[in-house]
Every structure is written in C-alpha cells, then in structure tokens.
Write a structure and sequence with these properties.
eight-stranded mixed beta sheet, globular, disordered C terminus
Length: 195
Amino acid sequence: MTDVVYTRHDRRLGEFALRTLDVAADAPLLHRWVTHPKAAFWMMQDADVERVAAEYGRLAAHPHHDAYLGLWRGAAAFLAERYDPARVELVGLHDAQPGDVGMHFLCAPAEVPIHGFTTAVITTVMAWLFADPATHRVVVEPDVGNTAVHALNAAVGFEVIGPVVKPEKTALLSICTRERFVAATVAKEHRFDHA
C-alpha cells in the first residue's frame, strides 16, 4: 500500500487526496487515462502499458520530477506531477527563481461529468504544492492549444507569461504565486458562501 501525502476536503465534492504512485500496480490504470482521446495533450495516445510503466518508472527514479495518484472519495481519479522547472521541462525557457515548482495534472476520463470536478482537482493539486512552505510559485507549460486548461489555470490564479517553444510543443508559460492562488480560491469560496 502506498502512502497518502496530502488530503483536502472540498466543500461541494468531499475528500480529495494524493498518494505516492505505485508504478507496477498503477500502470494499467494510467495507461487507460493517458491513451484516452481526452488526454491528447498528454502525447501518449499510442503508448502501450509497458511504455507507460517505463515512463512513470523513469519519473519515480528522477531526482527532480515525481508523480502521484489522486483520489476522490478513496478512488483513483487523477494524476499529478511535480517537477523542478529549473532542471526539467523548462530549462533555459523561463526566469527560474528559488521556490519555483512545476506541475502537470490529468483527470481520469469520466463516464458522467461532474460539475466543478476538474476545478476541485486543480485546486487540490495547487493547495498540496503550496502546503510546502518552500514553494513560492507554481509554473505550468500547457500546449498553447489547450484552451480548457488555460481557463482552469486562470481560475486558480495563474498569470500568463507567454509562449515558449519546447521540442514537443509550443507551450503557454504561466506562473501562479501563493498570493494569487489564495486570492483566487478564497474569492471563490466567498462567492459560494453567499450564493
């Protein structure tokens, strides 16, 4: 059994948690997620289970990049990755500062969409990253064409810096400070309380 590293209670949707990834046990599940048509921006559409296991095994062994399985009400529901953008993904492409943490997240494909679920997931992932006092900014680099994730990023306080060209894509570099995240999420909670 792997360890839960973070838990957050969402007022509307209940308990979200992150646990360490068990590459061997989780690879078949991750394979279904990353090869689903809705995960096209994950760029693993043609991967087999072995390739997915190898990729996440590589991340598990990497000193500056790791992955976690996200749970909703105890069931696997999303994937979160954390990395050092000064050493992985964005080397030389952004003005790296101490306390920067890179992030990727992917929600499992849902048979029945749940309103607000993806927002609750990104809020959970961001709250987890900022729970570490050493984290000052979260940095993301989604594909410029991934407009759905750009809207989610804006909703939790990300500020667009601009496009950066990576080997595999043109990305929209965006950064969120702890203060911007708190302002965005506290404002949301305030609106919910008075709705």
